[in-house]
Amino acid sequence: MPSPFLVLEISLKQSKSTKHLIGFLRHCIWLMQDQQPIWKKGARCVVHVSDFICETIGQLKVSKEQIREQSKLLKQLRLPSVEACKIIYPGKGFDAWWDLPQLLQQIKSMIAVFEHTHPNCTGVFVFD
After folding, report:
1. Are 126 and 12 in contact (CB under 8 A)?
2. For residues 17 and 45, what is the distance between their CA atoms, to the nearest angstrom?
3. CB neighbours of 74 closer than 8 A, spacing ≥ 6?
4. What is the spatial distance between Cα 81 and Cα 113, in angstroms, rounded to a whole number?
5. Quick check: pTM over 0.85?
6. What is the CA radius of gyration of the chain?
7. pLDDT of 58-101, one tens digit each?
């Protein structure tokens, strides 16, 4: 008989990346194998993706079946988000750069998704 005090711990790791889009589309340059391009700052398009990867289901998000169940609930009882992923487009004239208030908002949504997808489990969150 399993112990009533046994808690399943599930590891979740934050994954984030930033990609410059237009710089790669307009320029073709030759570099040595150990070199990276240095782009001038400007009003180019940047995409920043922050997500949480779970050891049990991969990208932390609710399943299609769970989304259908959520859509039947009253709006006040639904999850605030069906996935932990947050995508912003930072830069001059666009979204603000990634900061602590945005991370905290993402964590609130992520915890709700985690608790819905992993009932009675404890999440161990890893940030870099």
Report:
1. yes
2. 14
3. none
4. 7
5. no
6. 19
7. 989 998 998 899 889 898 888 888 998 998 888 777 888 888 99
Contacts of 56 (CB under 8 A, 6+ apart): 10, 118
Distance CA 83, CA 106 (A): 10
d(CA 6, CA 53): 24
Q: What is the pLDDT of residue 65?
A: 92
Contact 117, 66 (CB under 8 A): yes
Residue 1 has a pLDDT of 47
Alpha-carbon span 108 to 92, nearest angstrom = 27
Closest C-alpha to 47, from 99, 13, 93, 97:
97
With a cut of 80, say whether residue 39 has pLDDT above it.
Answer: no
